[in-house]
Amino acid sequence: MSVLDDRLAELGLIIPPVATPAGTYVPAVTVGNLIFTSGQLPTVDGTLPETGKVGATVSPDAAKEFAATCVLNGLAAAKGVLGSLDRITRVVKVVGFVASDPSFSGQPGVINGASELLGQIFGEAGKHARSAVGVAVLPLDAPVEIEFVFEFE
Length: 153
Description:
By secondary structure, this protein is an alpha+beta fold. The chain has a single domain (about 5-20, about 25-150), classed as CATH 3.30.1330.40. The protein has helices spanning about 5-10, 60-80, 105-120; strands spanning about 30, 35, 90-100, 130-135, 145-150. It has a five-stranded mixed β-sheet, with helices on one face.
């Protein structure tokens, strides 16, 4: 096992298989020493656990958990190009999209689900720059979608 795999096991987390792209793109690419992931939906075994707008049919607490699921899917995409997550040295940026009811303004709290989990996994190296954006709709009517930028060696 790797150091990061041990940390994930301590947290009771498992990296899933890389999600199959829903279009003509790849899950992640490397440029220099950076990995850019495609937008990650909170799929579990290829299925969204819930669909709809946060603040309407999806609770903010559920959406925060979905943001954490996006982290696992993003790490799967990164592992797919790196071979080992131990090569990741830093989380650089998180860009979170939240399908929001027009009256919902708690997007930062939803994306905290991803930021908090990255901190638990990577410690100091998990601190990152971030955007949290409300949008009208996301692919497959997902409540959350997140992109990640990781640095690696």
